[in-house]
Amino acid sequence: MKNDKPLLEFAQPPISQAQTARHLLHPAWSAFVRYCTELQHGEIELLKIQDGLPVLAEVTRKKVKFTR
Predict the structure, then answer these.
(1) Which helix (H) or strand (E) is 54 found in, with range?
(2) Tally of domains in the chain
(3) DSSP 3-31
(4) Per-residue tens of pLDDT for the chain, all 68 residues
(5) Residue 55's domain spans which residues?
(6) Domain-embedded: residue 52
(7) Which pLDDT value is given to residue 44?
(8) CB neighbours (10 Å) of residue 27?
(9) pTM, whole model, 2 decimals?
(10) Cα 50 vs. chain centroid, distance in angstroms?
(11) 3-state SS assignment for residue 25
């Protein structure tokens, strides 16, 4: 009896939601999210959007907490 299954099967590692989101996000949004992540605490007062994509953050402030 012939078996059509391969001798070895390699399982694909599961893709996390973060990896999926990175693949779906436009590079401009990905850069903006990365900037926000690095900022941690702060404010963005003026964000320019063109054609639905972030283009420029003109005024940003970083907040630093000295207490927990």
Answers:
(1) strand 53-62
(2) 1
(3) --S-S---PPPPPPHHHHHHHHS-HHHHH
(4) 566 766 666 666 776 766 665 568 899 999 999 999 988 888 888 899 999 999 998 887 888 778 87
(5) 43-68
(6) yes
(7) 87
(8) 9
(9) 0.58
(10) 19
(11) coil
